[in-house]
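anyone else get weird line breaks when pasting these?? whatever heres mine. first is seq + tokens for prot A
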Amino acid sequence: MAVRLPRPHRFDVCVAVGGLLGGLLLWGIGLGVRPADDPIVLFPGGWALLLPLVVMSGCELLRRTAPRTALLTGTAAAALDVLTQGSLVTVVMYTDVMYAAVLYGTPASARRIPWITGLLTVVAAVVPFAVWRTPEALLIGVAVGIVSFAPASTGLIVRSHRDAAETARLRAEQTALLAEIDRVQAVTAERSRMARELHDMVANHLSAIAIHSTAALSLDDTATSRQALTVIRENSVEGLAEMRRLIGILRDAGGDTEPSAAPTLDGLGALVAGARANGLDVRLEPAHGGSLPAPVELAAYRIVQESLTNALKHAAQGTVRVVLTRTDSVLRVDVTSPCGDRDAPRAPGSGAGLVGMRERAALLHGTFDAGPEPGATGKVWAVRAALPLTEGDPT
């Protein structure tokens, strides 16, 4: 199967055609570089310079697609042109082929060609001067330098600038990509935070509303219905207030920090009181000591809140214990409730509560565990979280 050469670039075709026509014009008016009687001219006929001209024009077609082949072939054509009367256009096209070989060639060629042409320039200046001992001999080295070393050096400079610009472009694209990744991660993290806040703030109130509305509908007792409706109203009002606070967070353009109204451990008493009003027997043993970091207080509050919500929906009759223990480096949250044998929960749930509690602990580099375990009076459901007071793993 024959190998199909790539099509030459349109600019290269224009250069080749323009060079060929220019060379033919100079040949037609009889303008050459050297006179016919010059000792170096071995082929004095005017037709002899057309062969190097045509070959060099063909090399221009390959200057971009096959720069090494173009340079080797062009060098041979330039050497042949020296043995004729010569064409100025052939010399000019050779300098362009030399320039293109460095600019479009391989990195190895771009490094070697300027060194080789520089060495040839020095040799072409020193050797004739050493042989003839005349200052004019140095002009040979100047001519070689103009034809070979100068375009090779120019090509290297242009290539270096082009590579630097490409590197800068790639670096800018990489920076933009990293910025987009950071933006997506920030949006995802913010959405997860909003989801946890929405679930933890509203689920407790809606669960109480569902449970007490069921009781009001199933019991034909005026006092019980009134009590249930009272609890429903209280939870509705509190849930509405929590929703308004969440809307305030969503509208806050000041950053992703927790708002000043975020709950703290000081609000556990009111939280437990609300759980008792909903029918839970809750005992609270709060931690004692100084102030805690705000993220730790918020996470502990939400874990207790969600644990009480789950106990309201799933726990059997008995005491729910909330114990907070503080050490120098860790705040431990333990919530235990009697395991029930219900076929279905007292109120429907989304199953996101345990996920949210685990995420809150993980964001603080803490640990979280929830599941059944034996207790003093039977099997209990235990929620245990360890929240570091400083960044790092809990001890």
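and prot B, same format (seq, then tokens)
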Amino acid sequence: MDPIAALLEIASLLERERASRYRAKAFRQAAATFQELPADVREDPTRLRAAKGIGESTFAVIRQAQAGQTPDYLSELRGDVQPEIESTLRPKLRGDLHAHTDWSDGTTPIPVMAAAARALGHEYQAITDHSPRLRVARGLSAERLREQIPLVRAESGDGFTLLAGIEVDILEDGTLDQDDDLLGELDIVVASVHSKLRMDSRSMTDRMIAAVSHPRVNVLGHCTGRLVEGSRGTRPASEFDARAVFAACAENGVAVEINSRPERQDPPDDLIALALEAGCLFSIDSDAHAPGQLSLLDHGAQRAERAGVPASRIVTTWSLERLRAWAE
């Protein structure tokens, strides 16, 4: 098989399973390196192995692919990785409103994420890197975000649209961690709590209601902040008056995110039921930090389907034209 295709498939499978980002990145780097090598170097094992960016594991994959074999490591991953989850709702999803690039804490550049979204058949994909307060994630200052916006929109074309957005931090007083005027220039604004997750219920409720009442906010991201599995360990859900928060979301036309990352499963099933009862809209999002994680939408689709969320109330099933009208 094609060595580049083999390397990239391995990277995507590792990303989908949320393996170490460094492992997946090594295979993407090897694919980029191999693509740029002269033909004579590609065919010379000694010089190929010596190329910067080609390691022992990636070299073995390349050589097996060149020999017309499916690389052993790829076969192993194909066997270990769980197949995409069957769902009648998943094919109805037209896009994804929450994903990150290497401008903040994602692993790959904007064009790579755009290409992966296209390959999945998305009609649209939002790039929503973090806001400045989240320094550990290299959150974007106003200057960096202004620089990013045209680069994001430049990836649109041929029936696919890359939307300029942000995952903006909800600060402790409910204000948003970015200039209002700049938020108004974006296509999509996802607002999420990332700090002081254990504050008292009344304060957290007021904080979240203030954020979803902001006219620029479109989506309330991973509302409880919980972690139920994975390499980062577990974390309990934040405490807040869900009925009050979801009532504010419904009143302001803000979609409640069904986050597709298996380690989050956020909101929990009981809160999805409350949001349904409150009349909320929903957005099934991948929260992808790498190209292979965009396919995690199947997890979110399965949870939404199991909870009885109608496709008509999921904004990511809507056409781009309708989505834009709602977001504006």
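btw re prot B: The mean pLDDT is 96. The domain at 3-79 is CATH 1.10.150.110 (DNA polymerase; domain 1).
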